[in-house]
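Q: Give me a protein?
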Amino acid sequence: MTVAAMVAATVLVSCQSNAGAQDETGNSATKSFSVDDFEPVYDDEADPAEQIRDAVKSAASSGRFVVCQVGGNWCKWCLLFADSMLKDDEIAELVDENFVYAHINVDKTGPDGKRIRFTEAMDMLGNPVRFGFPVFVVLDQDGNVLHVQDSSFLEEGNGYDREKVLRFFRNWTPKALGR
């Protein structure tokens, strides 16, 4: 899978809690999809801190920024975003040209069945979990956090608004920031 395909697979969805979401009529909207509808995109065996360091090195050598999509394979909105990106050539190309894209697990299940937070990786990203999942963190070539994007602002109905997603990525390219 190319970087563009991975990025495209990650851009049109959000794993925010949508309990209060509303449809066009103002009624509560229910999301009619599950994690079983999508291919996993997060590597459950990877060290997220190492993934971030590798992405920053790649960005530094290629003149791009890094976008970390923080979430997990348990997050239907994370997987929907990834799937939607794969299906949009314009978004995939924009991301591939300007970013190193990394799917960063926020946590894992320990041997006792409890969730273990990847604190080193979350510290590196400015602890973005307060925004829900997925959450997108843009890093420069030195690994500095430039922006944290709450994905709920990219949503529309049962998915993502294509124009909002494009605007988000366009506004955080190295060129847009004069770098």
Observations:
- The chain has one domain: 3-171.
- The chain has a mean pLDDT of 85.
- The domain at 3-171 is CATH 3.40.30.10 (Glutaredoxin).
- The first strand starts at residue 65 and ends at 71.
